[in-house]
UniProtKB/TrEMBL annotation:
Taxonomic source organism: Alpinimonas psychrophila
UniProt GO molecular function: pyridoxal phosphate binding; transaminase activity
Cofactor(s) required, per the database record: pyridoxal 5'-phosphate
Family indicated by similarity: Belongs to the DegT/DnrJ/EryC1 family.
Any single GO BP term: polysaccharide biosynthetic process
Keyword tRNA-binding: no
InterPro entries noted in UniProt: DegT/StrS_aminotransferase, PyrdxlP-dep_Trfase, PyrdxlP-dep_Trfase_major, PyrdxlP-dep_Trfase_small
Active site: K181
The protein's name in its UniProt record: dTDP-4-amino-4,6-dideoxygalactose transaminase
């Protein structure tokens, strides 16, 4: 038996929801998309949302909605999947990497402050493992310099910060619904914002930039079929088939959160006495929807422990290689050593299995194997 580090939870209700769409005339661009967008907006405490084809697409649409372009600068975390930076760079911006806090792995506002320039357009925080970033501090830094605060919440849908839902904290927020995330649409994502106009810009970008509203068109009398493109966009639409899965997953989100919290607390209780192990931190003012359970193995033993656990069938993962260590960044002149705290975090980190359907017995195996690996 193997135990993955993450996987989807699919119920019969999820399956029935998808099948029901298959019998309608709307496989895409239909009413289930709208219903799913409404559900995500409600969950996020925002007036609107737009759903898209992936978490990467959500980030791309979010940056586009903020009108970032050549000459602008974005500050983000290196402790993230490469898409957080790559989607900004695809729009022509210069990315700067700020270091992270040693306890949470989240971007450090003090490190961010040292990197702000007159060209800074966006500060992009990443909710590492599901723990929300220091949103108030990052928003204050951004707004004091005329920049935007973007939250990469790929890990943290249904988390709260100071009793406010993730999605309502930043100028714009991107979610991911990949199978290992806290809820899934197979592939998919969403963009939310307290500013409905930003969501509409993201929605337009995800649909080729098409303008269908006659009041906004330059040539509205062309005919009833007419649509225009005023700014270039891409096709990042999420179909009704996958939106149906997402809509039913939202109904299960409280169940998912409770189960992930229970798994987190059991790991914390049963691993707290293990020598040579650093457990994840939770700040008092957050209520995370845990996506990862990141432990750290000091004294250079991470690879040894990783291999031991994988050989025992516990398919632990490492999250993440510092983004600027990828050769594509190296070729652009980014150097190792820029963010020493993030690099130290990466060199020790292993993600233990964390998903809603992880059974009590499976978690017992994970704990036992980790203890043996560190013995």
């Amino acid at each position: 038996m193997t135990i993955p580090y993450g996987r989807q939870s699919i119920s019969q209700g999820d399956i029935d929801a998808v099948v029901s769409v298959m019998t309608t005339d709307w496989l895409t661009m239909g009413p289930v998309v709208t219903a799913f967008e409404d559900a995500i907006a409600t969950l996020s405490g925002t007036p609107d949302s737009t759903v898209v084809s992936s978490g990467t697409a959500a980030l791309h649409c979010a940056y586009a909605a903020l009108n970032v372009s050549n000459g602008d600068e974005v500050i983000t975390s290196p402790l993230t999947f490469v898409a957080t930076a790559a989607t900004a760079m695809a729009l022509g911006v210069k990315v700067h990497f700020a270091d992270v806090a040693a306890d949470t792995g989240n971007i450090d506002p003090g490190s961010v402050a040292a990197l702000i320039t007159p060209r800074t357009k966006v500060i992009a925080g990443v909710d590492y493992a599901g723990h929300p970033v220091d949103a108030d501090e990052l928003a204050s830094l951004a707004h004091s310099t005329g920049a935007y605060f973007l939250e990469d919440a790929a890990h943290s849908i249904a988390s709260t910060y100071k009793n406010r839902p993730v999605g309502s904290l930043a100028d714009i927020t991107a979610f991911s619904f990949f199978p290992t995330k806290n809820m899934t649409t197979a592939e998919g994502g969403a963009v939310v914002s307290p500013d409905a106009a930003l969501v509409e810009r993201a929605r337009r970008f995800r649909s080729h930039g098409l303008v269908r509203n006659k009041e906004e068109q330059r040539y509205p009398d062309e005919g009833p079929w007419h649509q225009e493109v005023h700014e270039i966009g891409l096709n990042y639409r999420l179909p009704d088939v996958l939106s149906a899965l997402g809509l039913n997953q939202v109904k299960r989100i409280a169940e998912f959160k409770a189960r992930r919290t229970s798994i987190f607390e059991r790991y914390k209780e049963e691993l707290s006495d293990v020598a040579g192990l650093i457990l994840p931190t939770k700040r008092d003012y957050v209520d995370p929807m845990w996506h990862l359970y990141p432990v750290r193995i000091p004294e250079g033993r991470r690879r040894e422990v990783f291999d031991f656990m994988r050989n025992a069938g516990v398919l632990v993962q490492v999250n993440y290689l510092p983004a600027y260590w990828h050769p594509v960044f190296e070729d652009l002149g980014y150097k190792r050593g820029m963010c020493p705290v993030a690099e130290a975090y990466y060199e020790q980190e292993i993600s233990l299995p964390m998903y809603a359907d992880l059974s009590h017995d499976q978690q017992s195996i994970v704990i036992d194997v980790l203890r043996k690996a560190l013995a």
